Amino acid sequence: MLAEHGTFHHVYDFYNLELPFGIEVPLPYIGGDSLQTSEFALSKFMMLQALAFLIALWIFRGVAARVRGGRPVNGWFWNFWEMLALYIRDEVVRPVIGDPHAHGHGDHGHGDHGHGEHDHEDHESSSFELHHGPAISGHPADKYLPFIWSCFFYILFCNLLGAVPWLGSPTGSISVTLGLALTAFGATYRYGAAMHGHVGFWTHLIPHIDAPFAMKIVLIPLIFVIEVIGLFIKHAVLAVRLFANIMGGHTVLGVILGFIFHVANHSAWWAVAPASLAGQVGVGLLELLVAFIQAYVFSFLSTIFIAMSLHEH
Predict the structure, then answer these.
(1) How confident is the model at residue 51, as a pLDDT?
(2) How far apart are CA 255 and CA 265, in angstroms?
(3) Contacting residues for 257 by C-beta, under 8 A, at least 6 apart
(4) Is 149's pLDDT higher than 90?
(5) Are the beta carbons of 66 and 85 closer than 8 angstroms?
(6) 13: part of which helix (H) or strand (E)?
(7) Residues 175, 181, 186: CA angle, nearest 5 degrees
(8) Rounded-to-integer distance, Cα 159 and Cα 172, Å
(9) For residue 296, is pLDDT > 90?
């Protein structure tokens, strides 16, 4: 597996990644004296993330094709994914973000509940306008939908891949969840800066303080530092929360399964093995629920952070 005079022909053996089959992947030679420094390591989680992307692309190209022209979606499989997308739109993004340009409490409240018949019509026609003009432009918060939808379904498919034997959940790696959290922070900054400007994004973190000038001199820098630190902590928690929940579930499954091997040479094996397998099934079903919940929590919190960057404190 050595390169021939700086050209390429590195081969990565995926038996090292505990897959049930071997895949030889030619990789470009980068240089270096050892295997660790002379090749790009293509990991199993990288391939699983690419697989999650391809699954999401296939499903939602299919949904988009079925709603094109204002047609209703037919088939339980496609209806299921349309239902999830509409739920994120109607119960998360629109209520949480509302209308970022409306700061009053009259007809355009924070949750945009004052639109009356307009909101009602949006919900009536929701199944017809998921992937074309009216749904994207029909509500001020819909411009943020593509990012939130991408977060939810990408994380969901990454989580669900862990239910397939010999694969795994990429979100069980802290490096993956950190990347997702950095992406969420980038979206928060991008949308906030587009609304308030690059400098205004940071000054926007300071709420209005109705206090004497001398007290403001002390409070404003203190509040600014606290808010900036809190902004980074909130997004770091996104990474830790997702990683801990997915990794924790896999750890429990491994421990329960390990009971069988621990008593392999004892008579108790006949009682422990069925109990462990039953526990595997129960925890596995719970893991399926956790996969959906954690994708929802990440998307919901990301929506809140975006809303905080848009609205006045």
Answers:
(1) 92
(2) 18
(3) 276, 280
(4) yes
(5) no
(6) strand 8-13
(7) 125
(8) 8
(9) yes
Residue 87 corresponds to which tokens in the numbers above?
A: 């739920």
Enumerate residues 6+ apart whose C-beta is below 8 A from 308.
188
Are the beta carbons of 89 and 142 closer than 8 angstroms? yes
What would the two tokens of residue 270 be? Answer: 């006949």
Q: Are 229 and 266 in contact (CB under 8 A)?
A: no
At position 87, the amino acid (one-letter code) is Y
Three-class SS state of 28: strand
Written as one letter, the residue type at 140 is P
114 neighbors 159 (Cβ within 8 angstroms): no
Query: Concatenated DSSP letters for 153-168?
Result: HHHHHHHHGGGSTT--
Asked whether the beta carbons of 297 and 241 are under 8 A apart, the reply is: yes
Q: Could you tell me where the beta strands, DSSP code E, fall in 14-137?
A: 24-28
Residue 172: name the closest of 237, 236, 239 by CA: 239
pLDDT tens-digit series, residues 43-54: 788 888 999 999
Sign for the CA dihedral angle at 302, 306, 308, 311 comes to: negative
